[in-house]
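Re: weekly structure request thread

Next one in the queue (141 aa):
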Amino acid sequence: MTAKEYLSQAYRLDQRINSNIEEISRLREMATSISSPSWGEKVQGTRSTEAPFVHCLEKIMDLEQIINKEIDTLVGLKKEIRTVIEMVQNTDERLVLRYRYIHNCTWEQIGNELNADARTVRRWHGEALQNVKVPENPIKI
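Done, posted below.
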């Protein structure tokens, strides 16, 4: 695993968590909405005794458990990444890595924070990646 692949894991996991949170909000909307009546003929051999929103609530609970596990993994991964970043000697390189992989900032945001142009930020980033030492047994998602 390269340094960039290792450091990028936190961003991908964060995106996955956000996607699951969006899905939960859609499920909550479905669970609280009122379904429209069906005016057509309905022939049904067996009838479900559960309320229609129960299935949505079960999905919400399952997704919340998954999100909690992913958040725990993200916290552990970011702690490990912080330790790896702190081992980089150059302060500018360390700050670029921190803003990019811990705070998920864009190149423009990093440039504004460090008062540097995009080219300089990318150069620092490239040099920093060469100085990163990936742990022997890193957290993998």
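The chain has five helices and no strands. Helices lie at 3-32, 54-86, 91-102, 107-114, 118-131.
Next request, please.
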